[in-house]
Specification:
six-stranded antiparallel β-sheet, elongated, 26 helices, alpha+beta, single chain, 22% strand
């Protein structure tokens, strides 16, 4: 290892900073306090749990110290107990011997022994001495062994059994024996007279247990002292362990060894320079890579950084307190990326750590990587923007705008005319229409948007169109082929500062749709082959978007063409209603909404509105089929409920056919509302097949919805009958029919939309045109997701003076009076010129009703502004029809005569029977009737009718 590793380890062991090795515990705060193990302080390092399951050095040291202390305390306790036992025996010997000798040498003892009753004198003295000395007894006996004193008076006068021969010889002794009271100690001392002759013996026995009690009283003190010593030693060991844990960061011996080995390996083997600079600006540590990068001298450590021969900017940064992140500094011929951070609060000594990375070889690579990143980001943005619309022109504009100025200074897009129209370009031509420009001022010298450009054969651009091949012109000034296309314009383009061009065809599905030109001007670098590859990638993505928009444009154009051909191109002339309408396709394309105004016989008008779910060709085609079917059923003059019933059966039949052929989806989801307005009575009759109810705006400003009985959409009724609703309207009322796209969208639900429609219709009377404008302005969102159809009709009433009615009895004689009354009524109306034909029609129809019909028979004449309608009603449901009468037939020519004098005629049914009607034109453009002779009339009119 390097000679610096030892110093580094010592610094690391002293510094409570964050360990670089795995498993290092949190650093201290430099004051000796242990941080909270749960969370670090603000800005402090986080706790890193040890990655090894072994005990830390601090823990091992603590356990070792604790075991040693316990062993020492245990040994001390054993020694104390043994010593106490020995001291007990010694104390017992000394106590008995001292008691015996003290009493043996007491004053007056010999006098008492020589008295007549030595026991009487000695027993009190012996008891007093026994109690004072703490022995069990003081036994005095003569050499003959007779007891003179004893703690047990019963033993006085008895012979003593025991070893007293040695005392009798004048020598004290002590003996240990096992008595009835347990282990005991007895001492004997001789009593000598004045001549030194032994005259008596004093014995002092004591049990060891008695002496042990006095020693046991000292054991709590001993134990308390031991516990205190143990606690003190354990606390000391804990403090030492805690301090050691801070220094070792909770690591075990193997971990610490591995950590220091890793530190040495990383510090000196990593290809990144590491410097530690003290607060005073002196270099404290430098690894091998830092020495190499900075060319430091061998004795660099400990010297000020200003004396190391570094660049002044580098030396100033190292000596300052400034933080640095990837700052580039020059060190001789190297570019170093310098990062500098303060060691606070990670180290015990304030300073800074500096890392150095040689970026000389990486600068070029990083620049290329940045360019690649930017271009990937540009491709991502292009994919997000270019595919966001299905309009060909806006897609081309998005391509031009996304590439400026991130890839090119100017971008132009040219497309083939068939592509702009949504058609398939069969063969790429050399004429393209400029569709988009981005990056130039209005006074630019390039061809403007919308101009059709032709390319000279043989030029690079023409080759790109014909062959679908990309090309790049790094220097336009030196490109003779490009300049030959339009020399004058080329000169103005070069004068504008444009100097490089990349041309890329827009190719999708193998077909060239157009070209995109990327231009660079000013100080921008010229295009190269790598730029051309990126331009091809960008153009390829854009071509897909343009092709999708082209196909959508084609489909939408076809759908709109089909819808325009199927929708009513104008409203028919009629006098019953003043009508205005609006149709607005959805943003998603053509839908299936439709409406119709259909004049009916008998001064009536049918208003129809319907909706087919979905968009596109299928919805438009389905709408056309339903509209034609409604027209056909209306020609039969059916009531609204009957018409919807037939329409429901038709849709069901069509759905079954479509399921069998798998040609397309069924019509399920179509709705229809059919309303008939009677010009004479002012009543409306409505029936609905799953459609929203019509709104009625009365002249007084009140708005109501005519809720017809609920019926399912077409094709889902399962043969159930439809029902009608009737309402009488005052003249000037506005009848509003609409589709759900007007009142239901994402911003509000259906109920809110209906209330908004009610509010838009309320208020003062307005014309149908103004009503349409107000409703759309109030309810239609900016971008509607569904198409909208709106039909507004203001009612009119036929003047009662223009209506004439007669009830006819079922008698052939009643024909002539009614015919005469009709003639007078026609004269009052000023219609004498058609009186002849009208009388002929009425005579034939009344006669036919009398012969073949049923009562009641009713005749009505309606004089509308342009038509006279003759109606004959009866209670029969049998319908007459025209047939070719043979020469021998006497009947069968009546309806033929009616058809000759009337423009239209027909039959309609009602719950009370049928009505046969005939309409004649009475306007100024009507042709006058030709006068015919009586013979001609008789030859054509047979009074027998049919």
């Amino acid at each position: 290892m390097s000679g610096h590793s030892g110093r580094f380890r010592r610094r690391l062991s002293r510094a409570p900073g964050r360990s670089a090795a795995p498993g290092a515990s949190p650093a201290g705060n430099g004051t000796g306090d242990q941080p909270d193990e749960g969370t670090a302080g603000a800005g402090g390092p986080q706790h890193i749990p040890p990655s090894f399951p072994t005990r830390s050095v601090a823990r091992e040291v603590f356990l070792l110290q604790l075991v040693l202390v316990v062993l020492l305390v245990a040994a001390a306790m054993v020694a104390i107990v043994v010593q106490a036992q020995r001291d007990t025996m010694t104390d017992a010997r000394h106590r008995t011997l001292a008691a015996a000798e003290s009493f043996a040498h007491s004053w007056g003892l010999q006098e008492a022994l020589n008295s007549d009753n030595p026991t009487a004198k000695l027993q009190p003295l012996a008891e007093a001495a026994r109690k004072a000395s703490g022995v069990d007894a003081l036994i005095v006996y003569k050499l003959d062994g007779i007891t003179l004193t004893h703690s047990d008076p019963r033993q006085i006068g008895k012979h003593v059994i025991g070893p007293y021969a040695e005392a009798a010889r004048g020598k004290p002794f002590t003996r240990t024996f096992e008595g009835a009271l347990g282990l005991s100690v007895v001492s004997a001392a001789p009593v000598k007279d004045s001549s030194g002759k032994v005259v008596a013996i004093v014995a002092a026995p004591v049990t060891v247990e008695k002496v042990q009690k006095s020693v046991n009283q000292q054991l709590p003190i001993f134990l308390g002292t031991a516990v205190g010593a143990l606690a003190l030693a354990g606390g000391g060991a804990g403090l030492v362990s805690r301090r050691l844990r801070r220094q070792t960061h909770g690591l075990g011996p193997a971990e610490m060894t591995r950590m220091y080995e890793h530190h040495d390996a990383v510090l000196h083997a990593v290809r990144e320079g590491v410097l530690i600079v003290g607060r005073d600006g002196r270099l404290l540590l430098a690894n091998d890579e830092a020495r190499r990068l900075l060319n430091l001298p061998a004795d660099a450590e400990g010297r000020p950084v200003g004396d190391l021969g570094l660049d002044h900017r580098m030396a100033e940064l190292l000596a300052s307190d400034r933080i640095a992140t990837d700052e580039v500094h020059l060190a001789q011929d190297r570019l170093l990326a310098v990062n500098k951070r303060s060691t606070t609060p990670y180290g015990a000594h304030q300073g800074s750590v500096v890392t150095l990375r040689d970026t000389t070889e990486l600068r070029w690579l990083s620049g290329r990587a940045e360019v690649a990143r930017e271009r990937l980001r540009l491709l991502y943005d292009a994919g997000m923007r270019i595919g966001s619309t299905l309009n060909v022109e806006r897609t081309a504009e998005a391509l031009a705008q996304v590439a400026v100025p991130r890839f090119a200074d100017i971008v132009t897009v040219e497309l083939l005319d068939p592509v702009l129209k949504g058609e398939e370009p069969a063969v790429a031509g050399t004429e393209l229409r400029r569709t988009a420009i981005a990056g130039l001022a209005p006074d630019h010298p390039l061809h403007p948007v919308g101009e059709l450009r032709g390319f000279v054969p043989g030029t690079p651009v023409a080759a790109g169109v014909d062959q679908g091949r990309s090309m790049v012109e790094p220097d336009l000034a030196g490109s003779s082929g490009w300049r030959s296309q339009d020399p004058e314009r080329a000169r103005r383009i070069l004068d504008h500062g444009v100097h490089s061009l990349a041309v890329v065809p827009l190719r999708a599905r193998g077909v060239v749709l157009g070209l995109v030109d990327f231009w660079r001007s000013g100080s921008s670098p010229p295009f190269d082959d790598e730029d051309l590859s990126f331009a091809e990638e960008l153009a390829g993505r854009a071509a897909v978007g343009i092709d999708n928009a082209r196909r959508y444009t084609r489909e939408r154009t076809m759908a709109m063409t089909l819808q325009r051909s199927l929708m009513p191109r104008g409203l028919p002339d009629q006098d019953a209603l003043e009508v205005a309408h609006r149709y607005l396709p959805a943003q998603a394309g053509v839908g299936g909404d439709w409406f119709d105004v259909i004049p009916l016989p008998g001064a009536r008008v049918a208003l129809v509105i319907g909706d087919v779910v979905g968009h596109g060709l299928h919805a438009a085609a389905t709408m056309g089929r339903l509209r034609i079917a409604v027209h056909n059923f209306s020609a039969l003059d059916l009531s609204p409920d009957e018409l919807l019933g037939h329409l429901d059966e038709l849709v069901t039949h069509i759905d079954v056919q479509d399921e069998d052929t798998d040609d397309g989806p069924a019509i399920t989801g179509a709705t229809c509302l059919y309303v008939i307005y009677d010009y004479v009575s002012g009543r409306i009759t409505a029936a609905t097949a799953g459609h929203l109810p019509p709104a009625v705006a009365h002249p007084d400003g009140r708005v109501e919805f005519l809720h017809a009985p609920v019926s399912p959409p077409l094709g889902l009724g399962a043969g159930l009958p439809f029902e009608t609703a009737e309402l009488a309207l005052p003249e000037g009322s506005r009848l509003v029919l609409y589709t759900d796209g007007l009142v239901e969208n994402r911003s509000h639900d259906l109920d809110a939309g209906m209330e908004a429609l009610r509010a838009a219709l309320a208020g003062p009377d307005r014309t149908p045109e103004d009503t349409c404008a107000t409703v759309l302005q109030s309810l239609l969102p900016a971008r509607s997701t569904d198409d909208v159809a709106l039909l507004v009709a203001r009612t009119r009433r036929l003047d009662p003076a223009q209506v004439a009615e007669w009830d006819v009895a079922r008698d052939p004689a009643a024909v002539s009076p009614v015919r005469n009354d009709c003639a007078r009524q026609l004269a009052d109306w000023g219609l004498e010129r058609i009186a002849y034909g009208t009388e002929l029609i009425l005579s034939e129809l009344i006669t036919n009703a009398i012969r073949y019909g049923a009562e009641p028979i009713h005749v009505r004449l309606l004089h509308t502004p342009g038509t006279l309608i003759s109606e004959v009603s009866d209670g029969s449901s049998t319908s007459p029809h025209i047939r070719q009468a043979k020469d021998t037939d006497e009947e069968g020519r009546g309806l033929f005569l009616v058809a000759q004098f009337a423009e239209h005629w027909g039959t309609r049914y009602s719950p009370r029977g049928k009505t046969i009607w005939a309409a004649q034109a009475v306007g100024p453009d009507a042709l006058p009737e030709e006068e015919e002779s009586q013979e001609d009339l008789l030859s054509r009119w047979d009074h027998g009718g049919e």
